[in-house]
Amino acid sequence: MKNSRWRYIEDDGSSASFGPAADEYITRKLHLSPYSHIVRLYTYKGPSVIVGRNQDIESEVNLTCCTKLGIDINRRPTGGGAIVMGEGQLGIAIAGPVNDQSPLLASKTVFGPFTKGIIVALGLLGIKSEFRPKNDIHVKGRKIAGLASCTFDGHPAGLYHASILADMDTDLMLRLLKKPGRKDGSITTVSSELGRYVSTHELRECVKRGFEKALNAELIPAPLNKEELAEIRELEERKYKSRDWVYHGKEHSTRDYHTQYAVPGIR
Questions:
Q1: What are the CA-CA distances from residue 59 to residues 9, 142, 261, 263 (Å)?
Q2: What is the per-residue pLDDT across 204-253, written as a single tens digit (0 to 9) for each?
Q3: Within a domain: residue 148?
Q4: I need a labelling partner for 235 at 20 to 30 A (CA). Which of 120, 127, 250, 257 fits?
């Protein structure tokens, strides 16, 4: 993997349905790519509620409040708990091969190399963090990022997910989620750790550099082209705008390496 070329995609303002559709698409198409891995760093437009692959949406989300506030809801292919994503949260999606030669997404090692990239990125901002099994990154005992991964049946690649809070609207989160987690200071954000506002743009630049430094990879900017966007929108319409998927998770099967998507502010 040393000095390997990774495709780098930046997206801002993803909708609740486009975000997970794009992540699934780049994973399924990795085997056709000239790049060894694909990295997508993105934000959602406005607040969106994204539930885990196996969650009961009515038990986790205040649907009445979401409807009243015009908050979109969707379901990601990785497991774990409900999260609120928006302009202040950076989504990370990495598509990587799953085989004996590149075991980065093997179940026992999935978080090691990629988590190192996030830890290095936070270090570039002056934040010392550490990995806490099985799927958290902590700063002084408080969670700042959460991790998850899955594979899609019949495809030789896996999807690695992470979410880092640059900032967070705690009051809104408590209104939108029925089980938002503890309110005892067990979570933190990049902005609160540094005592200043940190934009997702600034955080994203550090994450990009962190992956390049930690994994000896060259991230080559290559935005999604028109053909890819059209195929993502087809997947979005067919699956991620389907009520069966959003409310019941009914579609083709995926296999979660880790069922908890331990995002700060949730659990």
A1: 34, 26, 17, 18
A2: 999 999 999 999 999 999 999 999 999 999 999 999 999 999 998 876 54
A3: yes
A4: 257
Q: What integer is the mean pLDDT of 118-138?
A: 93
Identify the domain containing residue 27 by its residue range. 4-258
Q: Which DSSP category does 60 fall into?
A: H
Contacts (Cβ under 8 Å, ≥6 apart) of 6: 35, 36, 37, 38, 39, 211, 217, 218, 219, 220
Q: Which amino acid is at 205?
A: E
∠ Cα 252 258 260 (to 5°): 100
Total domain count for the chain? 1
Look at residue 98 in the predicted model and tell me its pLDDT: 81
107 Cα distance to chain centroid: 17
Q: What is the DSSP string of 214-259?
A: HHTEEEEE----HHHHHHHHHHIIIIIT-HHHHHH--SS-EEEEES
